[in-house]
């Protein structure tokens, strides 16, 4: 297990870099988009709510950076395909991809999960990330130091009752990211890693644990700094999972 490296000494270590963040309208995605912008990146912010994206844009401008706002339902596969082409036409590359968008899904016994809710969880948490890889991989390979970070969960390594759809999709995301990392390891500078945020003060966490005091949890801004470190050109590890609660970088296989 290895601690993350300290941020680079440059005041804006991501100047000139293009970063795409999904689920950027709130929580961890919002905080990560802002952290990358503060470091100098031009942020392509993807989210469903135009108003929330505009609020993020205001904060990015105040931080002295710029953004491209992409109102997009992450289940729109054809929209994701078009996004890759549009980014290539405008920027010719992509330097950073943070796959953060996700849904909790139904918290109910597996035998009682509604098929539509099951399909929605798969579509958002898993299929959209595969579709994003398909669309963005060529752009990330054009970067001098492409970095991809996909958000997992501790639920991926547990078999907790009633968490089936969420846990299954997060476990699948880990295999998806690890497979991608292995495929590009020896043929490009692209590094692909995962992060487990752990319990964070977000709307999703409040939905899962309504009686929990949110003030006892770390803020999205804190985990965003860890994601930011994984996005730096100086971060050379790949195929790893950064466990934010223990502040450690883990290699696979991860003990249950």
UniProtKB/TrEMBL annotation:
Q: Could you state one GO cellular component term attached to this entry?
A: membrane
**What is the annotated signal peptide range for this record?**
none
Q: Which UniProt keywords apply?
A: Oxidoreductase
**UniProt entry tagged with the keyword Transcription regulation:** no
GO molecular function annotations of the record: oxidoreductase activity
Which CDD domains does the annotation name? SDR_c
Q: Specify the species.
A: Ancylobacter rudongensis
Q: Which domain of life is it from?
A: Bacteria
InterPro entries xrefs:
NAD(P)-bd_dom_sf, Sc_DH/Rdtase_CS, SDR_fam
Q: Which family does it belong to?
A: Belongs to the short-chain dehydrogenases/reductases (SDR) family.
Q: What's the name of the protein?
A: NAD(P)-dependent dehydrogenase, short-chain alcohol dehydrogenase family
